[in-house]
Amino acid sequence: MHSSVSEQIAAGLLDIGAVFLRPDEPFTWASGIKSPIYCDNRLTLSAPELRTLIEQAIADTVKTHYHEADCLMGTSTAGIPHAAIAAHLLGLPMGYVRSGAKDHGRHNRIEGRLDEGWNAVVVEDLISTGGSVIDVVDALREAGANVLGIVSIFTYGMQKGLDRLA
């Protein structure tokens, strides 16, 4: 048995084959960085035991560190299911933020209820440089939300991301 929830989640990611290594043909991350490693957190959705551990860890983190949260806001698209399940566990409203406004319908960038002044916690699946999640935080603040923090399943621990999110 692993001593911490983080270690249990890391072991679970390895067990389900969510961590990929390709030193000869590096992956290109959303940030544009080329890397020999890639963690596909979407695979956790098909692993009920690990998914439950992750969603409970997200809910526990929100209860412990962001107990004044009014809602959870997922990042599009990989943060959406994790935000939805954790919000369900917490009995909180949930929404999500697109990378850009829709070009049809109501042209929303933010989906779901978000009242001005609400305390929001962003749920992200993975952080590398922090650029994508900072963009989400900015969109939520522009909409009048108070962003309490960010909860992520996995981080590469890159200095650039740590500095940007400090």
Task: Provide a descriptive summary of the structure in words.
The protein has a single domain (5-164), classed as 3-Layer(aba) Sandwich (Rossmann fold), CATH 3.40.50.2020. Helix content is 35%, strand content 24%. It contains 5 helices and 9 strands; from the N terminus they run αββββαβαβββαβα. A 5-stranded mixed β-sheet has the order 7-6-5-8-9. A two-stranded antiparallel ribbon has the order 1-4. Helix 1 (5-15) packs antiparallel against helix 2.
List the helices and strands and how they pair.
Blueprint: H1 5-15, E1 19-21, E2 27-28, E3 34-35, E4 37-39, H2 48-65, E5 71-75, H3 80-90, E6 94-97, E7 110-111, E8 119-127, H4 131-142, E9 146-155, H5 159-164
Parallel strand pairs: 5-6, 5-8, 8-9
Antiparallel strand pairs: 1-4, 2-3, 6-7
